[in-house]
Design a protein that fits this description.
Elements lengths: L12 H17 L3 H31 L4 H30 L3 H7 L2 H11 L7 H19 L3 E3 L2 E3 L1 H8 L4 H17 L1 H21 L5 H8 L7 H29 L7 E2 L18 H15 L1 H12 L3 E4 L9 E5 L4 E8 L4 H18 L13 H14 L5 H4 L3 H31 L5 H15 L3 E2 L4 H4 L8 H5 L5 H18 L5 H11 L5 H7 L12 H17 L5
Parallel strand pairs: 3-7, 4-6
Antiparallel strand pairs: 1-2, 5-6
Helix pairs in contact: 1-2, 1-3, 2-3, 3-6, 6-9, 7-8, 9-10, 11-17, 12-13, 12-14, 13-14, 14-15, 14-22, 15-21, 17-18, 17-21
């Protein structure tokens, strides 16, 4: 069935809550384990159906935020989901307290119990109204960002659409486009800052109601950090500062030299320009890229070929940027139909190819795990899910000529370079949020100053000459995760370290690399992050020195690439 054919009807709040109460009573009154397990399965299927309806409404809303019907449906779910979450927590307590709980542990992955133990600590009747308000504020941010209409060179662009001009081969166009882009944020700084201030204070209030000093430990519970804590993350940050920041600065220095600058300090409009001759760009239109992606996945493995054919046949991709479409990209899934969905905004940059590898990595994992029971163990936790997407970017390297034609080698360099340079940025986003939630009474100016201070530590190459908004520390306002999913960002970097290890194994022609990747995709959410890392035969990122060898491998590859392409400018 195609996505456009999926039926949708709003689930009635009272009927849904009544049904959940009935499940709760049946679980409490079960006289034998078989009855208890069958009720659990029915409950799991029911919630999978509700979740599918939510995702249908959400996807259709983000495809066109001007659609009043699905905007109303998305708003409706924002309001009822905290109520449903609270009711589900009551059912989870019944399951945990049941005399059949130990038997159930034999039939369910251990991660189900770990995640739900944490979830029980993040929901309570006294915070339901606060969670509704949190959802509303997050939606307010999305709507504000999606509403951007920026006049540039006789055309009107969304923020996502303007990025094509921000990567133009003409430096003067890039400069003007960046100033237009960041000028919009400067004009809306007060509104964005006010939304975030309300979110910080509200999330702090929620955490304190749940017995925490601040939001940080509560945020870790919400993110289902199953087998690592704040101390592990802090140690990981130290590893990044020690091993990655110096390697990234070497890459920035080489980039600056290619662009004609004497120091590794690049104007913001040149930072994403990796070569003076221009960044690699897709050589074909989007329909050709999708067809090539299908051919690529068919050749990569039988499993990926079947998966992508189904995605195309069932129209489970919405890729083009257009007016009213929400910014960014994501992958979600519909449990009832056992299929993932990819949402993106193509902008004629290398991002377009990465969508068809990164988001397809998420989608392939969800497809590989689609039959796992219970349904909420199909997806792994956030940082684990990113291993699947980021690793897929590297497994598809041999097919990049079909996206970039003669620029394929240039893409390989910029992709690896960008991967390394991203790690300090991703850690910065996480570090910033720790600082903010430790100081919830900060003003917007103080948050801006904090960002800029940390930015100089992790990204010392930054040069914001001519863009006062960024010099004052405003970059973070464009990072939606900070608003929508607090602490969901270190995940990308942890996963990137794992993906780089897969890349390293591919350089050594390790015949087991893809099989190990398949194993973690099939495992889905049945294992924790560290367990998945070990299942894939990779190094755990929290261990001292875990990044040293990887960065040495990167340096060796870059040296070899430069020797092979001495004239690549």
């Amino acid at each position: 069935m195609k996505f456009t054919e999926f039926p949708y009807s709003r689930p009635d709040e009272k009927e849904t809550l009544d049904r959940l109460d009935a499940f709760k009573a049946q679980l409490e009154q079960a006289e034998d384990y078989e009855s208890f397990l069958n009720t659990f399965k029915d409950y799991d299927n029911f919630m999978a159906a509700i979740d599918s309806l939510f995702n249908i409404a959400y996807v259709r809303h983000t495809i066109d935020t001007r659609d009043e019907f699905y905007t109303a449906e998305a708003d409706y779910f924002d309001q009822i989901r905290p109520v449903l979450d609270n009711k589900q927590s009551e059912i989870t307590k019944v399951i945990f307290d049941s005399k059949f709980a130990e038997q159930l542990r034999n039939d369910l992955p251990s991660t189900w119990f770990l995640k739900h133990e944490m979830a029980l600590k993040t929901i309570a009747p006294e915070i339901v109204d606060d969670l509704k308000e949190e959802n509303k504020l997050a939606s307010d941010y999305q709507k504000l960002i999606a509403s951007a209409q920026i006049e540039f060179d006789g055309r009107v662009f969304t923020l996502a659409g303007l990025e094509e001009k921000m990567n133009d081969t003409d430096r003067s166009v890039r400069e003007r486009a960046h100033k237009a882009y960041w000028g919009w944020f400067a004009e809306h700084e007060e509104a964005i800052g006010e939304i975030y201030d309300k979110l910080v204070k509200l999330r702090t209030k929620i955490a304190r109601k749940m017995g925490h000093e601040n939001y940080i430990p509560f945020g870790y519970l919400r993110m289902s950090r199953l087998d690592y804590d704040r101390n592990d993350v802090e140690n990981y940050r130290r590893n990044v500062l020690k091993d990655v920041v110096p390697a990234a600065m070497e890459l920035y220095k080489a980039q600056a030299a290619r662009l004609g600058y004497p120091e590794p300090s690049l104007p913001v409009w040149d930072e994403k320009i990796k070569f003076e001759s221009g960044n690699p760009r897709p050589a074909f239109e989007s329909d050709v890229l999708v067809q090539h992606a299908f051919d690529m996945y068919k050749e990569l493995s039988p499993e990926t070929g079947v998966f992508f054919q189904q995605m195309v046949d069932n129209e489970m991709l919405d890729l083009e940027s257009k007016a009213g479409k929400a910014a960014g990209g994501y992958c979600t899934s519909f449990a009832t139909y056992k299929t993932p969905f990819i949402f993106a905004n193509f902008n004629r940059t290398q991002h377009d190819a990465e969508v068809l590898t990164h988001e397809a990595g998420h989608a392939f994992q969800a497809w590989s795990s689609r039959d796992i029971f219970p349904a909420d163990c199909v997806w792994p936790t956030m940082e684990s899910a990113e291993i699947d997407s980021m690793s897929m970017e590297f497994f598809t390297w041999p097919w990049m000529e079909g996206f970039f034609d003669k620029d394929a080698e240039k893409y390989h360099y910029t992709h690896l370079e960008g991967t390394v340079q991203f790690l300090p940025y991703g850690v910065l986003v996480d570090h910033f949020q720790h600082e903010v939630f430790e100081n919830p009474e900060w003003t917007n100016d103080e948050r801006m100053a904090c960002w800029r201070r940390l930015e100089k530590q992790y990204l010392p190459q930054k040069d914001y000459t001519g863009v006062d908004f960024l010099e004052r520390g405003g970059w973070w306002m464009r990072q939606p995760h900070i608003f929508l999913d607090p602490f969901y960002y270190i995940d990308y970097t942890l996963a990137q370290v794992a993906a780089l290890q897969f890349w390293s194994r591919l350089q050594r022609n390790d015949p087991e690399a893809f099989n190990d990747y398949l194993a973690i995709c099939r495992a889905g959410g049945t294992k924790s992050f560290v367990e998945l890392i070990r299942l894939a035969n990779l190094k755990v990122p929290f261990e001292d020195g875990c990044l040293e060898q990887t960065m040495n491998d990167v340096r060796a590859w870059v040296k070899d690439w430069n020797e092979k392409h001495p004239d690549m400018r």
